[in-house]
Design goal:
The structure holds 3 protein chains of 3 kinds.
Chain A lengths: L1 H8 L5 E7 L2 E7 L5 H9 L17 E4 L2 E4 L12 E3 L12 H8 L9 H14 L5 H7 L11 H15 L1
Parallel strand pairs in A: 1-5
Antiparallel strand pairs in A: 1-2, 3-4, 3-5
Helix pairs in contact in A: 3-6
Chain B lengths: L2 H14 L15 H5 L16 E7 L5 E7 L1 H4 L4 E6 L6 E2 L6 E2 L5 E2 L5 E7 L2 H10 L1 E6 L6 H4 L28 E9 L2 H6 L3 E9 L11 E6 L5 E5 L4 H12 L6 E4 L16 H10 L5 E4 L2 H7 L2 E2 L1 E10 L5 E13 L5 H10 L9 E10 L5 E2 L6 H19 L3 H8 L18 H11 L13 E12 L9 E7 L5 E4 L9 H13 L6 E4 L17 H28 L6 E4 L2 E4 L6 E3 L1 H4 L3 E2 L5 E2 L4 E6 L22 E12 L5 E11 L6 H20 L30 E7 L21 H13 L10 H18 L1
Parallel strand pairs in B: 1-14, 12-13, 15-19, 17-18, 22-23, 31-32
Antiparallel strand pairs in B: 1-7, 2-6, 2-8, 3-7, 4-5, 9-18, 10-16, 11-12, 11-14, 16-17, 20-30, 21-22, 21-29, 24-25, 25-26, 27-28, 30-31
Helix pairs in contact in B: 11-18, 14-15, 17-18
Chain C lengths: L4 E3 L4 H11 L3 E4 L5 H6 L7 E4 L9 E3 L3 E5 L4 H6 L1 H6 L1 H8 L4 H6 L2 H7 L6 H7 L3 E6 L2 E6 L4 E3 L2 E2 L6 E8 L5 E8 L10 E10 L2 E9 L6 E2 L1 H7 L6 H14 L10 H30 L1
Helix pairs in contact in C: 9-10, 10-11
The chains are: A alpha+beta, B alpha+beta, C alpha+beta.
Chain lengths: 168, 798, 292
């Protein structure tokens, strides 16, 4: 079956890329049209970034690319050569959860959980930028992370809670 | 005393017991750790290795037509394509309440987007390319899009075979028409009722098609082995219904179909029954031994799965000057879409609930499910209740205005109380409905009108009440196994789905309470129909109640077994045995104490030295105990449904009179949940439901062109609420009037928080601008033109 | 996505060499928030893609006494967060913050928004108000193009095959000024504009000058010069703006589409123009008081 792919797409180049995910190094060969989301999920086996729309409208595929949250469905894998990626798994340090993860559990800010990884990543970048964000800043940060279950109220509450813990 | 009696007594005992260790406590969700760390696996996260094939569907570009010819030869010869399937390969019917749907279209297509062929290939790209090589020739037929026109005898018929479709005995199709179900309620004497009325208010309301927009799109993987055993991994709310319907469709015994359902990324009804699996299994049958995966794109979600049915509602209400409602006549026309295999029961539910939660002596209600050439209507959080409550609760406010009565008082005056007679002629059980109405009215200070600083913005407050019963067949059963591990922890095997509502947490708390085991030592396993016991479906907000009851019985089964063993071993009366902190203790002999783990797996020695007992496993089952059918001509019955969850919401809005933009500033909810097993999670349900309701009220509408083509199948043009659209001031109140047959008195709360929202917002908008908008969504454009029309009227009056 | 080849040059010359060699059918990839969506939807199917993100010459964001040079790689978040832009070109910051989501703005660029040349491009009205210039480089050398002549129609602009935008230059208005961008979407955030209005009020010695530009209400974003002329050198009042508003309708030509009706857009052109002008005016007066 691999042969057919080679036959169909053989005239296009595959490129070798080197990048880091959650502190670990990866060397991979990718086709130019593969997205970062596909490569993370299907080639590396990190499945916390989710497919929700494929067009940057829902934020379920959010990952942190060199310190900024991005929609990994709109990034070509080939573009991340030499870059650092963090997914929600990478927020766990030595088995200890990030304060946002703790707060999401404590405040009941998780329901179906499908938007949760992207949501937490967006917020983790906010808390780095601004350790004491207002409700409105929190809401603005996650306007691109659509949640259909929670109504966002618990998420905002959890983020404020995490900020309080972090500032202690 | 028989063991049954003991069981009953114990369950009652637990209801009256006031101090609970785990019930009513805000324990963290048991699935949260996995979900915040990204460990939780959803269907799309499962890995199937290099043998995995990818499926894509060829869809109809015409909304109603005969299929003249399908040519798949070129697609089949494309390198990398493994199978192509069309309707005639497996010309079977499928459906939950009415078998009206083919797996793939056979001979006729009925909406734009209907699958006519499927391809399985080694990559998604090749499968997609193959679709373009399939040639289909259609002959177009006349279409039906409007449910009222569709119900007329002269309308083009969408399902000429309606009379031959098998259906449940409580569904009443009208062959030779587009009416796939007609449910009637006749109570009292309508004419008399209107004659006794001082004021008659008549109006109509409209609700468009919307879509669930779960963030996880539908995805499934099927593999059929060489003995034709089907295994299906799917994002589904209904593993057992899937198994049953697929087995029935293919003529297989149920045991040859295995359905495995990991975590679900949101359901809201869109993943109930069978949707995309109907197209996937035929493909897998053509490539034995290969797993085949079908994943909907976001675009396909909007026409390739379920949408919410649209509604045209006609309401006529007669009221006495003192505010008592005398008569109600409603006609609800549901636009069911091209197939109504599931939707027919929404029509039924909207019939037996058609009055809203009010005591009305004379009622005539006709609800129709009508075929249209739009995408398939199906269950959506609320199962028809959000839609009819938009009509009824808007109408209640209209009536209050005409009466010159406060909308809160008007509702309280007519609200159903325990013992009052419902429209179907049965007695309402004890309910906290009036408390809910009062609570939200007080929370929002309904009597006070707020003034806005901006001269172009006005504020208003609105309220709406609701009721909803679980809509299900009378045999919708639940069953549970509980097994011990050597460390004294337990696994609960059940087949409800954790779809975000907190099912696993609720079961954990119930078992923790019943067996005095710490929640950390309890695991709830996701369904696998080969291993876990039967559950009908994760729908109707029925699981806390239904699986909860089954689980209590399973726990009781364990206690019975353990106590029987120990009373023999310790030579004490089993009535003296109790569980405390995972230990069995004896009331009459305090020296007797043993940890459950020391008896639950390895048994225990009897006084004569012999070992008795062994691995203990509890089982329990529950079916709705006393539901009876209703009269098909009058809808009257002794107990048509198990119970009603009731509630109310109030909102404050600000309307920009220059743009028509509505902002919801504050909201309050109150629902009678019987008993909140986990109050924090109940509140979170209330918040989430309210925002989903807000989103449907303000933004959501599937738009179609005149040919029935969906115009906005994407998040670019189908907008759902973001964090910035939500009021930061939401107050959620829990009211508890215990459910007599609920576990610890609990009843469901999953769907309900979305039901009154749209009506409450519409009522608040009326309060703000003095104009009633009778069509959802309350779009800025609609609001603005309503304001202008009113302005025009005023000028004319001058 | 259809197959394509990918190049990542490290300077402009290299990029141009690639286009020269490979000919037509290529596309420049910047933030990708528009191009990749269009490639997925097969609305664009380039044979090859040149990723310009490693070209350091395009990474500039230079503020000086002439104005601000915004290199092509400057993201919308960088614009939102730039203090100089916030202080001296406030409407630009507002417009940048109104685009998409935080994630989209982290990748999407000012140049990309302009080059997409869609009628609803949020950055264009404000760039029009500032009489910005676009500096491009192509196979025939550099060009300096007035923003007002850059966009030709929906998704059409004057860029020739292989030509790319180096920077957008906004000169300081000669007098103290205030600018603003107001946007009406279908919900509070992450939406395309149903109507977007930029307004700029300039405090000249001979009186106030007003600039207004609108997006999503014509085949391209447009300057509303008729109302600008009507208001020139007058002191702004609510009544005065009202008088001038009908002039707006002579210049816009909105369509009916799935996002809004033509009629509603026409109404909103007036409402948002009035609001934008009055708000910019109020802010300018406030600024003057602070200075005094």
């Amino acid at each position: 079956m691999g042969e057919v792919i080679a036959f169909e797409r053989g005239s296009y180049m595959r490129k070798s890329i080197h990048f880091m995910v959650n502190g670990e190094n990866y060397n991979l060969e990718v086709f130019p049209w593969e997205t970062l989301l596909e490569v993370l999920r299907n080639k590396i086996g990190i499945t916390s970034p989710k497919y929700g729309c494929g067009k940057g409208e829902c934020g379920a595929c959010t990952v942190i690319l060199n310190d900024e949250p991005v929609n990994s469905c709109l990034v070509l894998a080939i573009e991340i050569d030499g870059k650092r990626i963090i997914t929600v798994e990478g927020l766990v340090k030595d088995g200890k959860l990030h304060p946002l993860q703790e707060a999401f559990i404590e405040k009941g800010a998780v329901q179906c959980g499908f938007c949760t990884p992207g949501m937490i990543l967006s917020l983790s970048v906010l808390l780095k930028r601004n350790p004491d964000p207002s409700e409105e800043e929190i809401q603005e940060t996650i306007a691109g992370n659509i949640c259909r279950c929670t109504g966002y109220v618990a998420i905002v509450e959890a983020t404020r809670h995490a900020a309080n813990i972090l500032s202690k | 005393m028989s063991s049954d009696k003991i069981k009953e007594e114990t369950i009652e005992l637990e209801i009256v017991k006031e101090e609970f260790s785990w019930i009513g406590k805000d324990i963290p969700r048991v699935d949260a750790w996995e979900k915040v760390t990204g460990e939780a696996k959803y269907t799309d996260d499962l890995q199937f290795g290099p043998k995995l094939l990818h499926a894509k569907l060829k869809r109809s570009p015409v909304s109603h037509g005969k299929i003249i010819n399908i040519d798949t030869k070129r697609a089949l010869s494309l390198p990398g394509v493994k199978a192509v399937v069309t309707g005639t390969d497996f010309p079977y019917l499928i459906g939950l309440y009415l078998k009206d749907r083919n797996l793939y279209a056979v001979d006729r297509v009925r909406f734009i987007g209907e699958p006519v062929a499927g391809v399985a290939a080694i990559s998604e790209e090749i499968a997609e390319e193959a679709l373009e090589l399939i040639e289909v020739e259609y002959k177009e037929l006349p279409t039906v899009f409007d449910p009222v026109l569709g119900a007329r005898p002269e309308a083009p018929i969408i399902h000429p075979d309606l009379g031959r479709y098998p259906h449940s005995d409580f569904i009443y199709p009208v062959p030779g028409t587009n009416i796939s179900n007609h449910f009637k309620v006749r109570k009292g004497n309508l004419e008399e009722g209107f004659k006794n009325s001082d004021i008659i208010i008549e109006d109509s309301y409209q609700v468009p098609h919307i879509q669930h927009s779960t963030i996880e799109t539908h995805v499934a993987i099927a593999e059929v082995d060489f003995r034709r055993n089907v295994t299906l991994w799917t994002s589904s709310q209904s593993p057992f219904a899937q198994r049953n319907l697929i087995a029935q469709a293919f003529g297989l015994p149920q045991s040859k179909v295995r359905v495995i359902t990991p975590y679900l990324g949101g359901g809201f009804g869109s993943k109930a029954g069978v949707t995309i699996e109907a197209c996937l299994v035929p493909l897998a049958m053509k490539v034995l031994g290969y797993p085949v995966k079908l994943r909907m794109t976001r675009e396909e979600e909007f026409f390739g799965t379920f949408v919410r049915q649209a509604l045209k509602a006609f309401v006529k209400m007669g009221v006495k000057k003192d505010g008592k409602i005398q008569a109600l006549e409603v006609k609800y026309y549901w636009a069911g879409g091209a197939y109504t295999e599931y939707g027919v029961n929404i029509t039924r539910a909207s019939g037996y609930s058609s009055s809203g939660p009010y005591e009305i002596p004379n009622v005539k209600s006709d609800t129709y499910c009508i075929y249209t050439n739009h995408p398939v209507g199906g269950p959506y959080r609320g199962f028809g209740m959000s839609e009819i409550h938009f009509a009824i609760e808007s109408h209640m406010d209209e009536a209050a205005v005409k009466l010159g009565m406060d909308p809160v008082e008007f509702r309280l005056l007519n609200a159903l109380r325990g013992g009052a007679e419902t429209l179907t002629g049965n007695k309402m059980h004890p309910t906290g409905l009036s408390d809910c109405i009062l609570t939200v009215a007080t929370t929002l200070n309904m009597k006070e009108k707020e003034v806005c600083k901006s001269p172009v913005k006005v504020r208003g407050k609105g309220i709406a009440a609701m009721w909803k019963a679980p809509a299900m067949p009378p045999d919708a059963g639940s069953s549970v196994f509980v097994k011990f591990n050597e460390d004294g922890s337990i696994n609960i095997l059940a087949s409800g789905m954790e779809i975000g509502q907190g099912y696993h947490t609720v079961l954990t708390q119930i078992a923790a309470e019943a067996l005095t085991i710490h929640p950390e030592k309890i695991k709830v396993l996701s369904p696998d129909t080969d291993r876990n016991p039967y559950e009908w479906q994760t729908v109707a907000s029925r699981l806390t109640w239904s699986t909860g009851n089954a689980l209590l019985k399973a726990c009781q089964d364990i206690k019975d077994q353990v106590f029987a063993l120990l009373s023999k071993s310790w030579e004490v009366n089993s009535k003296d045995l109790y569980l405390i902190n995972g230990h069995v203790v004896c009331l009459s002999d305090p020296t007797k104490k043993i940890a459950l783990k020391n008896v639950a797996i390895y048994g225990i020695r009897m006084p004569d030295g012999k070992l008795e007992g062994g691995p203990i496993m509890g089982h329990g089952m529950f079916v709705p105990p006393d539901v009876t059918p209703v009269d098909p001509e009058t809808g009257q019955g002794r107990k048509p449904v198990v119970h009603f969850t009731t509630g109310a919401q109030a909102v404050e809005v600000e309307v920009d009179t220059e743009t028509g933009v509505i902002k919801v500033l504050k909201a309050a909810s109150a629902f009678d949940v019987g008993k909140a097993i986990n109050p924090l999670q109940v509140k979170r349900q209330m918040e989430g439901g309210l925002v989903q309701g807000l989103s449907s009220a303000l933004f959501e509408e599937l738009k179609f062109d005149q040919h029935g083509k969906t115009l906005n199948p994407s998040f670019t043009d189908y907008k759902i609420a973001t964090s910035l659209d939500v009021p930061s001031d939401i107050v959620s109140n829990i009211i508890e009037a215990p459910e007599h047959d609920g576990p610890f008195g609990a009843r469901g709360i999953g769907e309900h928080p979305m039901i009154p929202t749209a009506a409450a917002i519409a009522n608040a908008v009326y309060d703000a601008i003095g104009v009633r908008i009778k069509r959802l969504p309350l779009s800025p454009e609609g609001v603005l033109s309503a304001i202008k029309e009113k302005g025009g009227e005023k000028r004319e009056e001058k | 996505m259809k197959e394509f080849d990918y190049y990542r040059p490290s300077n402009i010359r290299e990029a141009l060499d690639i286009t020269r060699k490979l000919g037509e059918g290529g596309a420049y990839l910047n933030g990708g928030t528009d191009l990749i969506v269009r490639m997925k939807e097969k609305l664009e199917q380039p044979r090859y893609v040149i990723d310009i993100k490693e070209i350091s010459e395009l990474k500039t964001l230079i503020y000086n006494d002439k104005g601000i040079h915004i290199g092509s790689l400057t993201t919308l978040n960088e614009i939102s967060n730039s203090l100089n832009i916030g202080n001296y070109f406030p409407g630009l910051k507002e417009a940048a913050s109104s685009v998409g989501s935080y994630q989209v703005r982290a990748r999407g660029t000012l140049t990309g928004n302009l080059v997409s040349s869609v009628p609803s491009a949020d950055m264009v009205p404000i760039l029009l108000c500032y009489d910005s210039e676009v500096l491009t480089i192509g196979l025939d050398g550099e060009r300096r193009i007035k923003l007002s002549s850059f966009i030709k129609g929906p998704r059409l602009n004057v860029l020739k095959p292989g030509e790319l935008v180096k920077e957008i230059f906004i000169s300081h208005p000669r007098y103290s000024h205030m600018s603003i961008y107001l946007k009406l979407g279908r919900r509070a955030a992450v939406d395309l504009a149903v109507v977007g209005v930029a307004a700029l009020v300039l405090d000249t010695p001979s009186g106030f000058e007003y600039r207004v530009a609108l997006g999503a209400v014509a085949p391209t974003p447009i300057r509303a010069t008729k109302i600008e002329n009507y208001l020139r050198h007058k002191v702004l009042t609510s009544e005065l703006v009202e008088e001038g508003l009908p002039l707006i309708l002579e210049e816009v030509s909105p369509i009916d589409d799935v996002r809004s009706s033509r009629q509603y857009r026409l109404e909103m052109c007036k409402v948002f123009t009035k609001r934008a002008l009055l708000k910019a005016w109020e802010k300018l007066l406030l600024l003057r008081e602070v200075v005094i």
